[in-house]
Specification:
Layout: H1 3-9, H2 26-31, H3 40-45, H4 49-69
Amino acid sequence: MSQNAASDHNLRDEYDFSAGVRGKHHEAYRRGTNVVLLDPDVAEVFKDSTAVNTALRLLLALAREQAAKQ
């Protein structure tokens, strides 16, 4: 029995990879990821990555503005 056949034997019937794409996220992982965990109180306010990125960009703009004044 080949390694693949042995692995296939261990899969449950409800697993369906027929529409799977091999290496779909490979390039993103190769470049690296930057997962950040939010504390629960912060996560209540910022529900998704768009909200977090918008807030951080605003903070960066304010910081740059303040730095330019000095």
